[in-house]
Design brief:
single chain, alpha/beta, 5-stranded parallel beta sheet, two-stranded antiparallel sheet, 11 helices, 9 strands, 38% helix, globular
């Protein structure tokens, strides 16, 4: 296993982009935000072959950083941001992403064995059963109600209860979501699926809570790299975000509390009830 090539996944809107942003502040660490064309993964013959392609991408990214001090990543104005979605809503009522895929400059001194982190939430989650045999894998999770509230506010497939990058790689997930006619039912099933994958495949000490990320100022990322021990960033929780419609929050919260999903293995119902008030 290549200890310096690290897979980062997590629930969409759980803080994975913020995690990359913070990791890029550290010495001997580069974190890439969704640099791969994961839509092509399903065209490969097996999940093991996909993992080999990911390994190849790591090698190519390292070569690009070493030789040209630049590498492919989604970015805003040439840098990995802490959040790719704006604070205002479009006419659709949803917040739009501002990122683009392109080359970013890597302006730091790096030893050959620097930590290279690649993040893809949905696709990497669907591949965890194989990825864990190739790379150290970490995931970011967040209070399930905050995740659902964020999903309802952004222009992403999850707003409609779908994750194409995951569904292309997990036929059973796609079959169930197609059969569920109600958007909220799809969102709840999809959310539980994410938590279930992490519970099944990732050790507890590699599952990072958004809430701990915020309260520690990023220092909990020492689980990924020891360089994060010194992080002390002024971070503010968005779990009670004014951008979330309180009526929607309460409605989704009541439906969430009535379910039994894998998210309850990580969060208590009391933590959800607090956000409904």
């Amino acid at each position: 296993m290549e200890q310096e090539n690290i897979i980062l996944t997590g629930i969409p809107r759980s803080g994975t982009t913020l995690t990359c942003h913070l990791l890029n502040k550290l010495p001997q660490t580069v974190a890439l935000h969704e640099p791969m064309n994961v839509g092509q993964f399903s065209k490969l013959e097996s999940h093991k072959v996909i993992c080999q392609e990911i390994k190849k991408f790591f090698q190519e990214a390292r070569a690009s950083i070493s030789s040209r001090n630049e590498v492919l990543s989604k970015n805003i104005l040439g840098a990995v941001p802490d959040n790719t979605f704006g604070e205002t809503r479009a006419q659709s009522g949803l917040r739009q992403s501002k990122h683009r895929l392109g080359l970013i400059k890597v302006k730091k001194e790096l030893d050959p064995g620097f930590f290279l982190v690649i993040k893809h939430p949905a696709a990497f989650t669907a591949l965890l059963h194989e990825l864990v045999h190739f790379f150290p894998c970490y995931s970011v999770i967040r209070n399930p109600l905050s995740v659902l509230a964020s999903w309802s506010s952004v222009s992403m497939h999850v707003e409609n209860g779908h994750a194409p990058a995951a569904e292309d790689l997990d036929a059973e997930l796609r079959r169930v979501l197609v059969c569920l006619g109600d958007k909220t039912a799809r969102q709840l099933h999809l959310l539980s699926w994410f938590y279930e994958q992490y519970q099944r495949y990732i050790p507890a000490n590699r599952i990072l809570r958004y809430e701990d990320l915020i309260s520690s100022g990023g220092a909990n990322l020492r689980a990924i790299t020891p360089h994060a021990q010194a992080l002390c960033e002024p971070l503010e929780s968005r779990n009670s975000n004014p951008l979330y419609d309180q009526r929607v929050l309460q409605s989704i919260g009541n439906k969430l509390l009535a379910t039994e999903g894998a998210y309850w293995q990580f969060y208590t119902k009391e933590s959800v009830e607090l956000l409904c008030r």
